[in-house]
Predict the structure.
Amino acid sequence: MRGVRQRIVRAAVVRPTCADGARRVEGPDEDRFTLLAAALEAAADVERADRRPLRVRVLGTDPAPRGGYVALFGRPVELIGERDGVALPDTLTLATGGPGPEVILAVEELPDGGAARGGTPGLAAIAVLVDAPTGPASPDGIPLDTIPSGESPIVAAYSAWAKGPGTHVPGVGWVGEWPGSERVARRAPRDIPASPPSSQVSQGAYLPPPRYLESLASRWGFLADRCRACGRTTFPQSGRCRGCGRAEDLAVEPLPKHGWKVVARTWIGAGGQPTEFDPEVERQGAYGVVLAELVPGVRATLMVTDAEPGSVRIGTTVETRLRRLYALDGAWRYGRKAVPEVGATPTRPG
Ligand SMILES: [Zn+2]
C-alpha cells in the first residue's frame, strides 16, 4: 500500500438476532457460518450492482462446511486464516493490495457496538469493500492507512458506521445492515448446543452426505433450471424440465432470495416432526413451515425463522436466509429459511 491510499468504500454489518443482556448473541439457528453467509450475500449484491468481479477473501478461522462458499457464491473464495500466525488486523492489511477491488469478510467481536445507535456489543459478520490500489481512487471512504495500527480495520469500519449519520466518514457507501438484524425482540434461548448434537436419522427423509453436497448450490443459492425449449422454470433443479420433460437445453437461473409470497402455512411439532428436528422442537416447541411462491409454478417449502407465530400469514412476502437446519452425522446441515420481509433493500444509514 506504499504511496497508495486504499480506502474502505463500503461495508455491511450482519448481527445475530438475539440479545443476552447487553450482548448480541446468535439465535438458535445461527452461528458464525450463517453470519458470514449473510455478509457474503451482501458482497454478491455489491458485485451484481457494480458489474465488476470482486476478489473475495474470508479472514480468520473458516467455519464453512465443505463446498459451502462455492454453493453460496458460485465460485470459491480465498481463505486467509490465522493459522499463518498472523493476527486478524494485520491479515487484512496483507489481504489488500491486489489488482482490483476486493471484499474482505470476517466475523469479529464488536466491543462497543456503536452506543450512539443503540447498538450492543457482541459478534458480527462484516463485509468490507476496499477499492483498487491502482486506477481512479475513491474520493471518499476510510483510508486504510489512517486506521491506527493494532486496530482492526473491520472494527474501525463498523465504529464509523455505528457513530451514526453525520459523524461517520462522509461518502462511505454503506451497504448497511442486513435488513431486520437490529430488530432484537427475543431473549437468547438457553442450551444452544455449540457442537452438533448426535441426532437420530429419520427414515425416508435421510439425504446421504454426497447427495446433500451435490444439491447445495441449488438449495442455498436458489438455482433453478430454465428450459430453452418451452421456457418453463424448474425449481428445485432436477436435471429435467417439469414442463416438457427435456433433460437438455436447460440453463441455470439464479432465483431472487426476496419477494416470495406465502401460499400455505402450517406448524410442525409435538411428534409430527422428522426425528432430526427433535432437538429443535424440544428446545423451542413447534416450528412454522410455509409454502412460498415466487411466480406461478415456482415454489419452495421453507421453515420459518426470526418471526413470532402468527406474523407469517398467507399473502405475507418473505425473504430467505441461510440458517442451521439440523445436525446429522456429527455435522450441521444448513438451508434457507423464510423471514417476513422488512424492506426490499438494506437500510442506508446517513
Ligand atoms: Zn421445457
About this structure: The longest strand covers residues 317-328. Residues 227, 229-230, 232, 241, 243-244, 246 surround zinc ion (CB under 6 Å). The chain has two domains: 7-183, 199-208+257-350.
